[in-house]
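User: Design a sequence. Structure:
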């Protein structure tokens, strides 16, 4: 019995905090690395809001990080009608889109669109 509990606990530690709020969630790094395979799919990420740009082109751009990845894979940008404040822990869900170009310098190799953002309390 103790061995089973230890294995379950080890599995929780290996999964990391990004999976704590949403067992079906992905890490920020995993979405960045698997983006081509995820195009058009809805993904969920749990992380901390590190930057917010509200009211741009009728949507909010919410940057989320979860501590995974390196300088090129540690950030995801979610577009949403909802917003959050820098520092808040959120569960963000949306559809993976690649090479989104809004024009006027707003071009994104990876964007998560039509997102819902739930603040974790």
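Assistant: Done.
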């Amino acid at each position: 019995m103790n061995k089973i509990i230890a294995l379950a606990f080890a599995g929780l530690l290996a999964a990391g905090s990004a999976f704590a709020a949403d067992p079906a969630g992905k890490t920020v790094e995993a979405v960045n690395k698997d983006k081509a395979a995820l195009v058009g799919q809805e993904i969920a990420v749990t992380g901390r809001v590190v930057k917010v740009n509200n009211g741009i082109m009728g949507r909010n751009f919410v940057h989320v990080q979860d501590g995974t990845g390196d300088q090129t894979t540690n950030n995801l940008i979610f577009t949403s009608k909802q917003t959050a404040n820098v520092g808040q822990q959120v569960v963000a869900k949306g559809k993976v889109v690649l090479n989104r170009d809004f024009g006027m310098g707003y071009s994104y190799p990876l964007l998560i669109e039509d997102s819902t953002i739930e603040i974790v309390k």
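The chain is about 20% helix and 45% strand. Residues 1-22 have pLDDT under 50 and may be disordered.
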